[in-house]
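Researcher: Please translate sequence to structure tokens.
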Amino acid sequence: EHIYTGNGVSELIQLSMNALLDNGDEILIPSPDYPLWTACATLAGGHPVHYLCDEQADWYPDLEDMESKITSATKALVIINPNNPTGSVYPCEVLEGIVEVARRHQLMIFADEIYDRLCMDGYEHVSIASLAPDLPCVTFSGLSKSHMIAGYRIGWMVLSGNQRCMSDFIMGVNMLSNMRLCSNVPAQSIVQTALGGHQSVNDYIRPGGRVYEQRNFVYEALNKIDGISVVKPRAAFYIFPKMDVKKFNITDDEQFALDLLHEKKILITRGGGFNWAEPDHFRIVYLPRMEVLKESLEDLADFFDHYHQS
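Model: Translation complete:
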């Protein structure tokens, strides 16, 4: 009961924002974020308010900044853990701090946990709902990332905690779910099998595994580039390096992304694409094969060796 399948988590995020938000309602979303959250909140008539994640603290949410942005219009807060685009994994003490903020201000918690099976280096994922049995929580996950079947489109959300507090939300979710009739039926049939037995993803994220080794290679290669610094990701497929904007004279990260694309035929996503306010970050997806990553990082190093934004 209170488990909903969807055509990927993306559909369920949109469905949830439509069920929750009235015009002018506010929802706290991390910066940097997975931009679908901001888009869906806006489409639903809500106002996304971005709290900062702190690069100096392994990209954990800044709880003081989070709490300072709560108003009488705030209905909920979103966390993305493990995080896209930073690869951060939040420890229990950070999650407990977020729960306390939500509890003080009577907020719903939306937890995007699609990368929960992709933690490396001994880090373990803890679901925030397990720490908040008294609060209304909505937890999202699926098979797209952990089972490498993004195109198959199967995700789910679990409603837990205080059901009375979210009775109107549940009614909205049920209404919208019925309007779309059902989620992908063939994909639903594989969930039980996929979640049981041997988890092949574990072979990717341990030493010698493809994702693990490619993460290490990209992290080390970026650190060798003068003017680039980066926090080592602990999960997922992403790394979010920082550029020395003074060294490269970068004032427009979209222009930087276009310059890199035109000169080196390398496509990255600029930091602003994740609602990061400064023009000093970009995201790399380290899923391409090692030979592609090696060629790309060599080209990237060559690009930064002479780049100066005009």
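Researcher: Any highlights?
Model: The chain has a mean pLDDT of 97.
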